[in-house]
Specification:
alpha/beta; five-stranded parallel β-sheet; 5 helices; 5 strands; about 45% helix; globular
Length: about 140
């Protein structure tokens, strides 16, 4: 299958996908590109920090458990910087259950999605969180 790469000029938004599992990065990227999102990827929290400083994304889809700088560490670092504090985040995790979800949301994530997830659910959450962020920023 040939990946769909939208024209950045026509893309809905720019999404940074961060996960140390290449197959998850591929699945998330393909689902988002198919739905007209521009996708940038990083394989670690450190790479993600570099990507964000190079060009601020409209949203970050982020794995919780990664070596070096995990998802909570990256979330905390970006939320503490006024330039990146309002970027919407969706955390991805293999940890299911109410307790794990609450922990992610209390850490500052906008949404929490348990692996394995459906592409339709992911895209719907990306779209709704981007819409909410645009609404908040318009006020």
């Amino acid at each position: 299958m040939v990946p769909v790469i939208p024209d950045p000029e026509k893309a809905e938004a720019r999404v940074l996908v961060v996960d140390d599992e290449p197959n998850i990065v591929d699945i998330v990227s393909m689902a988002l590109r198919y739905n007209d999102y521009e996708v940038v990827t990083a394989n670690s929290g450190r790479e993600a920090l570099e990507a964000v400083s190079a060009s601020k994304p409209d949203m970050i889809v982020l794995d919780v458990m990664m070596p070096e700088l995990d998802g909570f560490g990256l979330l905390d670092a970006l939320r503490s910087d006024p330039a990146t504090a309002t970027i919407p985040f969706i955390l991805l995790s293999a940890r299911a259950g109410e307790e794990a979800s609450v922990e992610g949301l209390e850490a500052g994530a906008d949404d929490y999605l348990v692996k394995p997830f459906s592409a339709l659910d992911l895209v719907a959450r990306v779209r709704s969180n981007l819409d909410l962020a645009r609404f908040r920023n318009a006020e």
